[in-house]
Amino acid sequence: xxxxxxxxxxxxxxxxxxxxxxxxxxxxxxxxxxxxxxxxxxxxxxxxxxxxxxxxxxxxxxxxxxxxxxxxxxxxxxxxxxxxxxxxxxxxxxxxxxxxxxxxxxxxxxxxxxxxxxxxxxxxxxxxxxxxxxxxxxxxxxxxxxxxxxxxxxxxxxxxxxxx
Length: 164
Description:
Layout: H1 7-34, H2 51-55, H3 67-85, H4 91-117, H5 122-137, H6 139-145
Helix pairs in contact: 1-3, 1-5, 3-4, 4-5
């Protein structure tokens, strides 16, 4: 690691990187199933999950492309941005925007599964959980890079002397 990377920057970046890698990892079985390499996606016991039905649905193939493939590519881009942002400050804003997009899409996907199927894909839920960790790990970056507040140009107020 270079001397330009501060100690306070490495801990959140490390968690962010680990969560992005875990999110990409949870998509590997989904991609294998959607491409016909894996015949069945195992689910935890219970009636809450229906991974096969959800990942084989038309909703999981926008424009005929398996969403697992799109997601894996997206998380690979996030991983690249995390690594580049360590040494290139201009990439930090792009990473912050990417985290907003990742979090929004993961949340949308979970809501869509519940609304359309009344079930969840366990693997996709794991991806969404990893994405939530990514967003939490990147919250300082999000605050710093996407702040909508402009610095105040007013002169600071003079403090009043307390009554004695």
